[in-house]
Amino acid sequence: MLEVMDLACRRGDRQLFSELSFALEPGSLLHVRGRNGSGKTTLLRALCGLLAPEAGEIRWKGEDSRRLGDDYRTDILYFGHLNGIKGDLTGIENLRVSTTLEGNRVGEERLWSVLGQMGLAGFEDLPTRMLSQGQKKRVALARLLVSDAPLWILDEPFTALDTDAVDLLQTLIAGHVENSGMVVLTTHQEVPITSGRIRRLHLGD
Amino acid sequence: MWRAFTCILARDLRLAMRRRTDVLTTLFFFLIVTSLFPLGVGTEKQVLHALGPGVVWVAALLASMLALERLFAADQEDGTLEQILLTPQPLSVLVLAKVAAHWLLTGLPLALIAPLIALQYQLPETPRMAMMLSLLVGTPILSLIGAIGAALTLGLRGGGILLSLLILPLYVPVLVYGAGAVTVSAIDFADTRPYFSLLGAFLLLSLIFSPLAAAAALRISLE
Questions:
Q1: Which of B11, B24, B174 is nearest to B98 (CA)?
Q2: Nearest-CA distance from A85 to chain B in Å?
Q3: In whole numbers, what is the pLDDT of chain A averaged over residues?
Q4: ipTM value of the model?
Q5: Is B10 exposed, middle or buried (0-12, 13-18, 19+ CB in 10 A)?
Q6: Do the Cβ atoms of B82 and A76 come within 8 Å?
Q7: For B4, which of A49, A86, A101 is closest by C-beta distance?
Q8: Is A103 helix (H, G, I), strand (E, B) or coil?
Q9: What is the pLDDT of residues A145-202, one digit of tens each?
Q10: pLDDT tens digits for range A101-154
Q11: What's the DSSP call for residue A128?
């Protein structure tokens, strides 16, 4: 379980938020909202350790996430504004690299079926720079299907996706929460999940 | 850990094969710079013998630096660097894999082509072989030290120039002993072994410390 205590972050001279505390139990989703520039992305980057907070502590399973290091990184999956895929590699190659680096041994057949599930059948072995924005995003999101990390940190995962893909992603998120996973996400739309708890956090004001 | 190393190495080599121009640019830069000097200073044998080792080594330094700027910048632009930082693998091992790929694509071709380049300076066979050997030992050091600079200047405006200012002074010992080995090898009864031992010592030292330093610099640069 994730606990955030008295977290404060600043970018340059601007204090984005301070004394932010919350806890997230297995089987729940945290929906972070706020206007543009209110520090949503900063919060998410601080949560996954890409950015050192000014003050406060992020605890994972009762221990300081900084001290956990690789043990913490095994347990999180971060999806940022950038897709994190290489334009010159094909969808399959991109997925293979990211699963290998995450330390998962995933068979070749599974990789193909995952991309098929993401609606990319027929596009698996094209360099991803030839794909549309939405398709690139689908390639990047395919990681959600092969990862077994309990904590998903998703920054605006719904942008550039068509309605089919939005539905698919919502099902994935709902499924993850149902399997007592944890999700932290920023988005401007509602996430309908039937089971589990939704918590809201409003940044700014 | 070994799987992650080979995974990154294979990924970078594959990416380079899909964008061959980047690799060829470095090689042609090296070829052209080293060919300009004999054309400029004339064909007098003694002058060429004196200039050769230094010029080839300086050209190798600059050529290896050309591709350095892109070492991490390309991965930063598409967000793959973020993902690499968040994988549960020791970052220094992944950095070492990237450096190894950089060397295989820039340093190794330069070293292999060097004996041919040395012909333009009318160097006899022994110094030509010494040139290849010294570049084989020396260019990995260039890639390793360069990675620290590339990581430190990542995402800065005008990072390319800053990178050269930061890294070139650190290349001095490698240049002195690398070019020195070639010069000395042309003299009869002179011993080149001290030069190669020192280069080897530099290589071991940078092999141990520079991945750690570059990994730490990357974490700072991405904040």
A1: B11
A2: 6
A3: 86
A4: 0.87
A5: middle
A6: no
A7: A101
A8: coil
A9: 888 889 999 998 888 888 888 888 888 888 888 888 899 988 877 766 666 677 888 8
A10: 888 888 888 889 888 888 888 888 889 888 888 889 999 999 888 888 899 999
A11: G
Nearest chain A residue (CA) to B4: A101
Beta bridge partners of A186: A32, A155
- Using only C-alpha atoms, chain A has a radius of gyration, in whole angstroms, of 17
DSSP bridge pairs for A28: A182, A197
> Is B1's Cβ below 8 Å from some Cβ in A?
no
Q: What are the extents of the domains in chain B?
A: 2-221
For residue B102, pLDDT beyond 70: yes
Q: Using CB atoms, pick whichever of A50, A81, A103 lies closest to residue B222.
A: A50
The CATH architecture annotation of domain A2-202 reads 3-Layer(aba) Sandwich (3.40)
Query: Is there a contact between A127 and B18 if contact means CB atoms under 8 Å apart?
Result: yes
Model pTM score = 0.91
B84 has a chain A CB within 8 A of its CB: yes
Whether the CB of B86 is below 8 Å from some CB of chain A: the reply is: yes
Neighbours of A31 (CB within 10 A): 17
